[in-house]
From TrEMBL:
InterPro entries (alphabetical): Aminotrans_3
Name of the protein in its database record: Aspartate aminotransferase family protein
Protein's UniProt keywords contain RNA-binding: no
CC cofactor: pyridoxal 5'-phosphate
Annotated keywords: Aminotransferase, Pyridoxal phosphate, Transferase
Family membership: Belongs to the class-III pyridoxal-phosphate-dependent aminotransferase family.
Region (Disordered): 426-446
Keyword check for Transferase: yes
């Protein structure tokens, strides 16, 4: 990629941001970046610096920045009609719903479009609680499901759950991260068995029982941690005995990002499809699309009307259709598997012998590097930025690095990013000496 067109710089923008935006709207980096341009897997800031994007705009850029197919579809629609209402027929919304319904794996699936992942999960909660006549929800420890009043109430990661005044009664189930407690040393099979027993105990308690279990197949904000394959298949059996629904939050794991599977739930395939799945982020390649897919009986359980003014707007649907078609035609799931596989191997080799790295984990282009503390993670984030690489962080204590590039990442770009990370990790190792285990700090950015 060449130089980006010249853009105006905005000195003092950070101070202006601080003066008018909420304090809890946190920004990455000591000197936050203003992104003004993107092409392929690269973005440019307002000072003309180019970055290799290993965080895909927090996973919103699923295929590539400025994908010509998406830009064309959006500008053609913008030239015809910018308008939104689900009160009129909308061909591109019906087309995307047909595609998503067929891809979902859920039989007789219905699709409802929203504008964000939060709203998608909110809709799933509305459906599940109504369908089951219960306001109890099972969620996973360390989970993240959104920022609205109800989704904050099912978010297990405490640093992302800024109020406890939820209208829902949430019970947190084991199985997300093992932590350093009694689960730490168990084999995968023993861990699954222990979590299933824990779930059984919980379900034995209530007369009516919970409406649903909601879970991210790989915890995103939680630091790209996944339970052993098959956990949700085992959960599903127990849930089914009690009529409890299973909602798979695929906001980060959907559309082939994990390489091996199109959806995260498929790593637990014996479980069959979930009753509902929710999606957002990457499907619009930066345009705001979210949604919930549910089997018809569940989707149609509402008595009254429910509508989203901007959900399914023609302009976002045009982006979604073009983006999904590109993803499927170019087998970006296969690319995520191949290039992601190389990248994770390369990062494991780079981390060998470094005390600062606790674990390199993940699948496809969803790779987490657990460091020995949040200070090391913050430092590596800064060092990578200095060398022109954007990555994310997260995890239980903010000590995980998150790598989630656009799914069209090339082998050469993977090598380039891995080399930057290797240097940054080595430097963090020599500065920190791997001594901060157990230190706690505010978690990473969603
Ligand atoms: N679910 C998961 C798994 C997420 O990672 C996020 C966003 N980080 C959300 C839901 C919320 O999505 P949004 O920010 O679009 O509301």
């Amino acid at each position: 990629p060449g130089a980006a067109p010249a853009y105006d710089t905005h000195p003092g923008l950070h101070d202006r941001h601080r003066a008018v935006m909420p304090e809890w709207l946190s920004l990455y980096y000591d000197r936050p970046i203003e992104l003004v341009h993107g092409e392929g897997r690269h973005v440019w800031d307002s000072e003309g610096r180019r970055y290799l994007d290993f965080f895909g705009g927090i996973l919103t850029t699923m295929t590539a920045h400025a994908l010509p197919e998406v830009t064309k579809a959006v500008s053609e629609q913008a030239g015809r009609l910018i308008h939104s209402s689900t009160l009129y027929l909308n061909r591109s919304m019906v087309e995307l719903a047909e595609r998503v319904s067929a891809l979902s794996g859920i039989p007789d699936a219905r699709v409802f479009f929203t504008t964000s992942g939060t709203e998608a999960n909110d809709a799933a909660l509305l459906l599940a609680t109504t369908f089951r006549g219960s306001n109890q929800i099972l969620a996973m420890r360390n989970s993240y499901h959104g920022r609205s009043f109800s989704t904050v109430g099912i978010t297990g990661n405490r640093s992302w759950s800024p109020t406890s005044l939820s209208p829902l009664q949430t019970l947190y189930v084991h199985g997300g991260v093992r932590g350093s407690g009694p689960f730490a040393e168990l084999s995968d099979a023993a861990f699954i068995e222990a979590c299933v027993e824990d779930l059984r105990d919980m379900l034995g308690q209530g007369a009516r029982g919970p409406a649903a279990l909601i879970a991210e197949p790989v915890q995103g904000v939680g630091g790209f941690t996944a339970p052993p394959d098959g956990l949700y298949a085992a959960f599903r059996e127990v849930l089914a005995e009690h009529g409890v629904l299973w909602i798979s939050d695929e906001v980060q794991t959907g559309w082939g990002r994990t390489g091996e599977h199109f959806w995260g739930w498929q790593a637990h395939a014996a479980a069959g499809p979930p009753d509902m799945l929710t999606f957002a982020k990457g499907i619009g390649n930066g345009m705001s699309i979210g949604g919930v897919v549910a089997r018809a009986e569940v989707m149609n359980c509402l008595d009254g009307n429910s509508i989203s003014t901007f959900g399914g707007s023609p302009i976002t649907m045009a982006a979604g259709n073009a983006n999904l078609a590109y993803l499927l035609e170019h087998d970006l799931q296969g690319n995520a598997r191949r290039v992601g596989g190389l990248l994770i191997e390369r990062l494991r080799a780079a981390s060998a012998g470094l005390d600062v790295v606790v674990e390199v984990r993940g699948r496809g282009l969803m790779i987490g590097i657990e460091l020995d503390g949040p200070r090391a993670a913050a430092r590596v984030l800064e060092l990578a930025r200095e060398e022109g690489l954007l990555i994310g962080k997260g995890g239980l204590t903010g000590s995980a690095l998150r790598i989630a590039p656009p799914l069209s990442l090339t082998v050469a770009e993977a090598e380039e990013g891995a080399a930057v990370l290797e240097r940054a990790l080595r430097r963090a190792e020599s500065e920190h000496g791997g001594t901060e285990r157990g230190a706690s700090e505010h978690g990473g950015r969603g």
